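Input sequence (282 aa), recorded before submission:
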Amino acid sequence: MKRKQAFLLTFSVILIGALYFLGDFKGKKKHNGHTHNEAMNASPQNPIENIDALDFKQFELSQENSLNEQKKATLSELKVKAIKKETAHEYKDIAEFWEKENELIIAAFYYKKAAFLENTEKSITFAGSLYLALLEREGDMSKLKWLSLEAIPCFEKVIELNPNNDNAKVALATCYTEGMGETMKGVTILREITAKDSTNIPANLMLGKMSIQSGQFDKAINRLELVLSKTPENTEAMYFLAEAYKGQGNKAKAISLFEKCKSIVNNPEFSKEIDNYIKTFN
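Predicted structure, token format:
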């Protein structure tokens, strides 16, 4: 029980943080209405497909070398046990070791190894979600790409185990669009979801955001209005709908939505950023 509680505590903070900064945009810095990661991924100066992914083995070795001798010995023992027994339990021990060192990328790697040994939809979904949460917080492009490459097999496996898991499909699309720069792969997955269920909230939300990035404001408005009709206090949809109306030239509607978003989020830093952003409207 202790193991599970410790495991969930640290990564729950990450998952909540991802929602806080990327779901509801509370306190997240914006660049022309997009999150930092979206702005980078959309930048022609930084095409992520041309960036090498993190060399994980080298990264892990570097972090191991920074440990004191006692910790190195502990880690070595854990690795020997994992190689010998090759069970989820031993890999979770290694993951927890790195979690305590606040090396969450390495911890996620070993939680993934444990999840694939357990081979359940629940465990692999959670492993993929850890990568996705880290991906959405990551500013280093090589790490961003590596996290995507690690997350993709997780969500592909979940879909193999349960072909009706649309949340896994949206997560997979997110990996392709935000982490790999493969927009059309992501769009294809999302459109397959909406073809089956035209009111799917996560898929329409993501397609709406992507329509803004491509300047298709009418399409964005249609999708985001649909999302808000189903989830009226969805502040992420509200924020991007405001952006879509601004892009369309309807600044009064945009300001109204931004003000409503401010009142629901109820965060002073977020409100200040929105107020400053509105001041830039001409």
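Checked by second reader. DSSP finds 15 helices and two strands in the chain.
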